[in-house]
Amino acid sequence: MKIAIAQINTKVGDLKGNADKIIKYINQAKEKKADLVVFPELSICGYPPRDLLDFECFVDDNLIYLDKIKKHTENIAVICGFINKNPSDIGKKLFNAAAVIKNGEITAKYYKRLLPFYDVFDETRYFEPGKEPLIVEIKGKNFFITICEDLWNDKDFWKRQIYHINPADEIQKHNVDVIINLSASPYLLNKEKERFSIFKNIAVANKLPVIYVNQSGGNDDLIFDGTSFVIDGIGEIKALCGDFQEDFIVYDLENNAGEVHRISETEEESVFNALCAGVKDYCDKTGFKKVLLGLSGGIDSAVTAVIASYALGKENVLGITLPGIYSSEGSVSDSEKLAANLGIEFLEIPITGIFDSYINFLQNGKKLLDLTEENLQARIRANILMMYSNRYGHLLLTTGNKSELSVGYCTLYGDMCGGLAVLSDIPKIMVYRLANYINRDQEIIPLDTITKPPSAELSPDQKDQDTLPPYEVLDDVLKEFVEQNKSINEISEKYPEELVKELIKKINICEYKRRQAALGLKVTTKAFGAGRRFPIAQGYDFYINY
What we know:
This protein is an alpha/beta fold. Helices cover 34% and strands 18% of the residues. It has two domains: 2-263, Nitrilase/N-carbamoyl-D-aminoacid amidohydrolase (4-Layer Sandwich); 269-459, HUPs (Rossmann fold, 3-Layer(aba) Sandwich).
């Protein structure tokens, strides 16, 4: 028996486009003589559909496209994700569902039983959990059907299970030959290793192959790496899709053999590919053809420019350097060199004259060299960048990193201005790692950009470390407080307590800034965005030792 895995890149809400893609891969599976083709979770509507699910017409239309897909299933079985209505008067109105289709008929439906409600997930807001397992027979083999989270509650893997039931416990109660999991599992750094471990544990415990199919591509802030696979009953990967791309592979069940495609080999390669996929799909799915960004000669804007160029093509990227009275000569020359290395369009627009006009108007020509003037420079640059964005229809990319965003080392309506924050979930140390990865074969980012001390260049001889601790320390505190929810006492075992208190205070009071930041691409376990719902006005005192 041949089983095809269709790792598709869906666009949320594009029911016709997604259905056409499903039909395309059904036909491809037929050409490969596959007996079954499997698609990701909610593949007709795309994941996550969020509040589109509140519109009854959207749900109805998704069912219409399910009917259209049915007509293309002659001589092949298809399993794909869709939205189904809950006929009961009690509970949520919808199910996160999978349809099993053969020869033009839906022969079975499965409803997702474990609905995630943490971080970026909010499925209990929309869906009623399913109650029963589903085992379907196809070509003499029995398939145990699950959807994503259903196989993530393994008691042998987690110290604490967050659901009261574990659908995987029911596998051995039935006559099962293959376990199938339809997923829309967002990318996190090293998450593929966690998936391999969880599904290997299930495969070995049941001595059965597990087929896992995940969607690929970006939808808003989420990036989906794909990395679909088959793990056999002794825990070996026998088929594997590439990461951050649409892919299609066929697995031969009898021979326990399938295609194995390459995935990213290092953390730097994985993050770089993820961000490229996020930028490309955000632009493709929102209709932007070109992007622009401010080039400061610093490492953040350099890495962002490279990602944009790789994602969209050099002809679709505009870099603008906007030197001011405190800009170093290297900030302009490094920007120009980077643009030449990438082959992107480049402009130089000095802002000193505009800045002086503001000073004359607002301060009678007196330069006070305070935070107000620093922010003023950033906001002048933002106005110019937004003018180009408006006039030419380019998406403005912001270039700030997670470390800066965490402590508010950024300017509202200044360098935070834009439509997509490419590095907003990338700590500064990872930015340097990405720069070195980019330069692994040749110098694309000028060496001076990487080696010089980081600076916003908004005051004379300004350096980031005048205001911030070393980024190695800041990034570690940030990870422990934001991603791991550790207390001041725990973090202070590694660093001076006063420093920890100061940083956590900055992180907390700058929440209002982050609420106004551009949408950012998520790659860590806790990004500043939909997955971190921290109150702005709140009275809990993190700084008291009880």
